[in-house]
Amino acid sequence: MKNDAPVTVLAAAAVPVSPAAAPQPPQSPPPRGFLAHARYVLSDNPVTALAAGLFALFVLLALVGPWIVPHDPLATGVGRPLSPPSASHWFGTDSLGRDILSRVVVATRIDFVIALSAVLASFVVGGLLGACAGYFGGWLDRIVMRGCDMVMSFPLFVLAMGIVAAMGNSVANIILATAVVNLPFYIRVARTEVNVRREAGFVEAARLAGNGDARILLLHLVPNALPPMMVQVSLNMGWAILNAAGLSFIGLGVSPPAAEWGIMVAEGAQYIISGEWWVALFPGAVLMLAVFTFNLLGDGLRDLIDPRRRT
User: Fold this and answer.
1) Angle at CA 185, nearest 5°, toward 179 and 188?
2) Domains in the chain, start-ordered, CATH in brackets?
């Protein structure tokens, strides 16, 4: 009886185990597509969903605003001057009898054009300069970073004022000034992200596979620097709108009688003491809401762009 136990053990060990019965290692879920990931990001964070809804509303107003406003934003005398909000003029009228609601809606386009153009230019140029500086290093890195230090040594709004005052207060010069003062933010972020990854394993594998420096930089390193840069884009969009409105407030931005939020706040500031609060309140409130929207949108943009969050 004692000699039967080993035989029983060997027989049991010799029984084949079916693949279905064998334990399977845990598998990670497949990556989601872009649209499915966008729905997940919006449903997972209600604050991001709110910011995305407000952003879509502003974009819609910028696109179709001039065709849906009840009055011509430049026409004077459409109502009694400095009349309070009423059923015919929801935001009231200004000192020339212009409809404030129409001017606020139409101003969305010019402010968004300035902010989007300036941030896009600084994002592309600053991101590429910073990525090249972080990847190649050496004299290129020193020149780029000293240029950043020179720009950031000035108060940014004062530097924008100087550029616009020297070149003229046109929309193109406002965009240029806003893009220049935003460049150091993207250069520093892109340089840091690329610099810490340029010797990573996936970069060495790409290099051994025969990829050149330009391909490694654009296809492997820059995409990994996009998530933190998208947060910076969101913050800079709000600052760019404030910068454009601030330049218009002091007379260096968009020229009157164009409808722009900063101009409208400046025109209404002199009537606050006399009691016509609506002239400055509604443009200032919409300006605040736009900046608030972009500040809330940063985390959602990071989660949307980061490929590591799609699994």
Assistant:
1) 130
2) 53-310 (1.10.3720.10)
